[in-house]
VOC family protein (Streptomyces typhae), 262 residues
Amino acid sequence: MLSTLPVTGAPIWADLGTTDPKGAAAFYRSLFGWDFEQGGEEVGGYGTFRLDGRAVAGGMAVTPDMGAPSWSLYFRTPDADATAKQVEQAGGSTTWEPVGILDLGRMAGFTDAAGVAFSVWQPGEHKGFEAVNEPGALIWTELYTPDIEAGAAFYGAVFGWRTLTQPFEDGSYTMVYPGEGTEEDMFGGLWPLAEDPAEQEAGAYWLPYFQVDDIDAVVERARAAGGAVRAARMDLAGVGAFAKLADPHGARFALMQPEPPQ
């Protein structure tokens, strides 16, 4: 489950860049029951997806020249400018320099040493997620990367992440947690890109997982609303059920239905 610790390197926000904000709002409402609150001119129209009134993600319009529609993940930092220097020192690059957004906070965008995009948020008035680890909210994150060891080293250098490799029947899975947390504060996994045919063509990236309480029903609603199933349901004993989808404009995300607590 997603770490909720307010510490450096923990996931703090996610947002959707899409060429059709109205269509995207309708699609995700049909899946998760989200409402979309459109932002004003002072934030460039950047809006908020809400679940029962609580902020669970952001959304903004992008043009084709800005890149394909996609979900982006933000990790907490106490100092976006210092993180930018750490990214450069670790072999990554800055996509956009740290910038303040009114009194809400500061943000910056980067690519890691393998070219994977990610962002940081230095919270001000906007503290990040108001709901996680429940149906309709973010529950997990996953990095598809060409080199697990190098990826772990990069994010370890930037955020202080620590890793735990868990064996399972077909191999192993590397999980990450904040340096200020414990193994109980896992929030994501690292997976070798070459081992997942569903991801190889599009390339390395961060994938957000949203929790659902009936994965089959949500998959069918996604199909009916014009989405695509990129990887059919898979069940992992002791963890739960998973499926990978794309919205009608191609933004990739995943579903997770956790096993009930014993």
Summary: The chain has two domains: 10-123, 137-258.
